[in-house]
Amino acid sequence: APLLPAAALIGATGYRSPLVGTAVWNVTVDIANEGGIEGVEVIQLYVQDPAGQGPFVPYWRRLVAFGRVRCAAGEVCSCAIPVSWEHLAQFDGEMRLRVLSGSYRVFAGGSAEDTPLEMNVVV
Known about the structure:
This is beta-glucosidase. This protein is mainly beta.
């Protein structure tokens, strides 16, 4: 049985790496294994791009990262999933790779059709 329905998205933190212009942030998801045996859960992160930005229609949701966590029966485990600017970037009208400024909706779940957790991240 999937572990994710008992999960709670607890936050995102950001930092800038020593490489110029490389921003990275982590999305942390807590997983509660309410089953009787150890399990492994793959958490997928999807984003919805800011509305009204760029020459293209924003994707409805696109997979940007994923993480895997092993959790013992009855335990609560955390999974920090790094997301870099390359994960959010898209090509503009002049075919330059860039990140749109604005509010991104971040969704977490076991699949594209099962994303019970969400939050907004402003870039």
